[in-house]
UniProtKB/TrEMBL annotation:
It comes from Streptomyces ficellus. GO terms for molecular function: 5'-3' DNA exonuclease activity; 5'-3' RNA exonuclease activity. Residues 1-27 are annotated as: Disordered. Coiled coil: none annotated. InterPro entries: PHP_domain, Pol/histidinol_Pase-like, TAT_signal. This is Polymerase/histidinol phosphatase N-terminal domain-containing protein.
């Protein structure tokens, strides 16, 4: 009998029930068009169905207008499984109603349904039942004709109980007269009269059509209240949201149809789908090419693919399909959490490898207490239209903000050329690049500028919420520049809060860069006491790494026995340590563990200083800005990092840059750019006590000094010398006398100019009271000079490269003094021209 199945049949696909009767048409929009993708599933997707034993109770109501059949089964322990309950629908059925029940303590039971033409609805675990007909449907389910033929209830058991989970499905078929069809309105592809400009929008919103609690009308109202210009409704695994607009399409707000494709191996947003199009979710990384195939289909329909909250460590949420296989990453999802910080760190690494994947921020609002548009994206589009907005997002011509109160203006200039987020600035190798970030609406926050070399500049924004950050770089020394604004106020799982983040301005093509970012290596050379240089050579890599040590930052300290302790930060921000004498490594590289002993500790900056007793002190800034310190024993032991005290009692010091100097009395002096962008100085006494942080005055009467780079070194007379780069890109120097007073900053003369422009600096105090200085000049090459004990300077001269003739191109440089009057220079190469 139609609708009745044999007991204990293994269900590996829709039942082979003959269809009877033609399918009725739909008034208004033809609803069969919205099932085209589902038809592909019905034709071929059933091959992946998981068999499950099903037992049936007797069908009730035979011979009446309402017939109910009960199906029972049991799902084993596990999350990645699907169960299909086939049932037949004869001609004359006008409505299908389904109810389910299961052992709630055993897990969750997701629910959906397929019809003869494919997808007809999905509600995950948000509902235990649904009804659908040509006139209406439960939210999450597609209204339309009840076609005769084979249907299947889809169950997605996520079973935590080791013994499995019992479930029950009741399918009720309602016969009767034909019901009126329910046409839907087509969403306009543009808002009339809105040309080029910056537009605000939220791409990740849930309604009652999945597990949200707002209607689409309530979403529209809240979006208007937040000041948004566009939204995307992205309910989980259903197309029903797009086919239920009837008389309520807004004319002042662009509504983009979307779906959050919620697989058991990560979620992704398919944004810009035609209404009624549906994207399948029942696959994983083991289904070779499945994700790529669906992503290609989304692109063919004009849509955008976005990995949603990709590093959320919840079951099924961690994105396993490859972060570089989507158009964009949702690096900021709802209220700022540690997951979002991890997203940004992973995205930054991708940028450093030249991968142009855009970043977006969305609210992922579900409940009425989730604020729509917090965060949201600000997009520079040629019009307020779906194609223009999606094109701009795909190119990264956008930034994300915590609310509509925040506005950024982020530009890079070289000559007459100007570029913003997602754009490429045309440059020749040695052009001067001026990057500016203007911020409004970001009260009591800190703006930072990032390149692949780390944080290059920072500035504090006061209670007015308005501030400007400036940085000067050179040519193609960096691959990109991007900006962040954070508020140093704890959130639920972090020590700060993100206020805004930009996509990068690119300085050269990611596909054909002049230098290979992945081949940047750590080189070293020695300046002998007679002023001659040894050959510049790469340092060997860590265990299992062929060739030179690949890194983004280095530091070194000359030990009393003539060896050199070296620190290297790898491209994954791991901290490594080695000891060398000349070109020969005495001890191999080893990973330095974190404060809790973890092997995966990552840092932004690191420095090391050597003492007469054979110990050395290491300071680092972690990825969250916290500054840590430890003292390496004379025998090479590492006791572990401890946080450096902050300004207030019991607080930790936060910094963007840090440098340490060993003093003759056994104390250490620390120099740092705090998270407010200003330079600070403190002393760690010989007994381990810390003095309070003080702020040296800036240049030419300025109350503070800010910039992208700094270095400090101690001298035999108890004084210290500081070298730093200002926000104007110029090198400045000053001395801290043994009594603690400062001489004030002054710029040393450049190679052929009154001042020296640079992007990186290093300084080392020598046994004779002089100081040797190295910089990466605006030409991208390493330069060296000496400040004599009487305060005079030698001219800058180029440091020779590996062939002992040509100057050496680098992105970061450090110099360390040795007892015999020689100096050891480490530099991260800028790669080799292709």
């Amino acid at each position: 009998m139609p609708g009745e199945l044999p007991t204990n049949r293994a269900t590996d696909g829709p039942a082979d029930q003959p269809a009877s009767g033609p399918t009725a048409g739909v008034e208004g929009v033809e609803r069969r068009s919205l099932l085209r993708l589902g038809a592909l599933l019905a034709a071929g997707g059933a091959a992946a169905l998981v068999p499950a034993p099903v037992a049936h109770a007797a069908t009730r109501g035979r011979g009446t207008d309402t017939v109910t059949t009960t199906y029972r089964g049991r799902a084993p322990h596990g999350n990645d499984q699907w169960v299909y309950v086939p049932f037949g629908v004869p001609a004359g059925v006008r409505r299908i109603s389904v109810t389910t029940s299961h052992e709630a303590a055993a897990g969750i039971l997701d629910l959906g349904v397929l019809g003869p033409s494919g997808f007809r609805g999905w509600s995950e675990g948000a509902r235990s039942g649904f009804t659908l007909s040509g006139a209406d449907a439960t939210p999450g389910y597609v209204p339309g004709p009840v076609e005769p033929g084979g249907w299947s209830v889809i169950l997605g058991p996520m079973v935590s109980a080791p013994g499995g989970m019992d479930w029950r499905v009741d399918v009720t078929l309602h016969h009767g007269d034909p019901l009126p069809q329910a046409p839907y309105d087509i969403l306009p592809s543009a808002v009339v009269g809105r040309g080029p400009g910056w537009y605000r929008g939220d791409l990740h919103l849930h309604s009652v059509h999945s597990d949200g609690q707002r209607t689409v009308d309530e979403i529209v109202t809240d979006a208007r209240r937040e000041g948004l210009h566009f939204i995307a409704t992205s309910d989980h695994n259903t197309s029903s949201t797009g086919v239920t607009w009837r008389g309520n399409v807004p004319t002042d707000l662009l509504v983009i149809n979307a779906e959050e494709v919620t697989t058991r191996h990560g979620h992704w947003l398919a944004v810009g789908l035609p209404q009624g199009e549906w994207v399948d979710w029942r696959y994983g990384p083991a289904n070779q090419g499945a994700f790529e195939g669906h992503a290609r289909r989304v692109h063919s329909l004009g849509g955008l693919t976005i990995a949603a909250h990709p590093l959320t460590p919840a079951p099924g949420s961690f994105f396993e399909f490859g972060l570089d296989r989507v158009d964009a990453l949702e690096v900021w999802n709802g209220p700022w959490t540690l997951d979002d910080a991890a997203n940004i760190a992973a995205w930054h690494v991708m940028l450093c490898l030249g991968k142009r994947v855009a970043a977006v921020g969305n609210s992922d609002a579900h409940s009425p207490t989730d604020a729509v548009g917090r965060p949201h994206n600000v997009v520079r589009a040629t019009s307020l239209s779906t194609p223009a907005v999606l094109d701009a997002l795909r190119l990264g011509r956008s930034y994300a903000v915590e609310s509509a109160a925040v506005t950024l203006d982020f530009t890079a200039r070289a000559g007459n050329a100007v570029a913003g987020p997602g754009e490429e600035l045309p440059l020749v190798l040695f052009d001067t690049v001026d990057v500016t970030l203007d911020v409004t609406g970001a009260l009591d926050s800190i703006a930072t500028l990032h390149t692949e070399w780390g944080i290059m500049a920072a500035t504090a924004i006061d209670g007015s919420g308005t501030g400007r950050l400036r940085w000067r770089g050179w040519g193609k020394a960096s691959l990109f520049a991007r900006a962040e604004v954070r508020r140093p106020k704890p959130a639920s799982t972090t020590l700060d809060q993100l206020v805004a983040i930009t996509n990068p301005v690119w300085f050269h093509s990611a596909r054909l860069p002049p230098y290979d970012v992945e081949r940047r290596a750590l080189f070293h050379t020695e300046r002998r006491p007679d002023g001659s240089w040894s050959s510049m050579r790469p340092l060997p890599g860590a265990a299992g790494e062929t060739g030179a040590f690949a890194g983004i930052h280095s530091a070194a300290a000359g030990m009393p026995d003539g060896s050199v302790v070296m620190l290297g930060i790898a491209p994954d921000n791991g901290l490594w340590l080695a000891t060398a004498r000349g070109a020969r490594a005495l001890q191999p590289w080893r990973r330095v563990p974190g404060p809790d002993g973890s092997a995966g500790f990552t840092v932004r900056e690191a420095d090391v200083a050597a003492f007469d007793d054979g110990t050395c002190q290491i300071v680092v800034t972690a990825m969250d800005g916290t500054t840590y310190h430890q003292q390496r024993g004379a025998d090479g032991t590492l006791p572990g990092f401890r946080p450096v005290p902050g300004l207030a009692a019991g607080s930790r010091w936060g910094a963007t840059k840090v440098s340490v100097a060993a003093m003759p009395d056994g104390s250490a002096q620390l120099l740092s750019y705090g998270t407010n962008g200003a330079m600070y100085h403190c002393v760690r006494e010989r007994d381990g006590a810390w003095t309070a942080w003080g702020r040296p005055a800036g240049y030419n009467g300025s109350p503070a000094f800010s910039g992208p780079a700094l270095a400090i070194t101690g001298l035999p007379d108890g004084s210290a010398q500081v070298l730093a780069i200002g926000l104007d890109g110029i090198v400045y120097h000053q001395q801290r006398r043994a009594d603690g007073s400062w001489t004030g900053f002054r710029p040393p003369r450049g190679v052929t100019t009154p001042t020296m422009g640079a992007s990186a600096v290093g300084i080392a105090g020598m046994p004779d009271g002089s100081a040797q200085v190295v910089t990466v000049g605006l030409d991208g090459r390493v330069w060296h000079n000496v400040r004599n004990p009487d305060g005079s300077w030698t001219p800058f001269a180029p440091v020779p490269g590996p062939n002992s003739r040509d100057p050496f191109p680098a992105g970061q440089v450090h110099i360390a003094a040795l007892r015999d009057g020689s100096a050891h220079v480490t530099a991260i190469s800028a790669g080799r021209p292709r």
